[in-house]
Specification:
Layout: E1 9-15, E2 17-21, E3 27-35, E4 41-45, E5 48-56, E6 63-71, E7 74-81, E8 88-94, H1 96-103
Antiparallel strand pairs: 1-8, 2-3, 3-4, 5-6, 6-7, 7-8
């Protein structure tokens, strides 16, 4: 997905999340697996969930919650889709080439 008005490209990266689920179905992220810049797999702990707000993407049809989290002293956003299949993901900035490879845009 390309943000309008800029040349930034972002992709959705699925996460292997460890979460706490309450009886009412509300999910709270605790930690997730991630690949760092050198290609090493690491476990990232979530220090604190600051806010949870509903989100929806008209282009892709994704509906869920956006979690504003404190991770390693920085504020980051994690997303949880509420439609099947339910999954966690994070947005990652990439080059235009990586973006086109990831989403396989026809004709390019």
């Amino acid at each position: 997905m390309k943000r309008s008005g800029s040349q930034e490209y972002v992709i959705r990266v699925p996460l292997n999340m460890i979460q706490l689920t309450e009886r009412d179905g509300k999910a709270w992220p605790l930690s997730f697996g991630w690949v760092d810049g050198q290609g090493a797999k690491i476990r990232v702990s979530i220090e604190k969930v600051i806010a949870v707000v509903p989100f929806a993407e008209q282009k892709s049809g994704l509906v869920g919650d956006r979690y504003e989290c404190l991770i390693d002293g920085r504020t980051e956003y994690l997303f949880f889709t509420i439609l099947q299949p339910r999954k966690w993901f994070k947005l990652k900035k990439v080059s235009e080439t990586e973006y086109k490879q990831y989403y396989r845009i026809p004709g390019e």
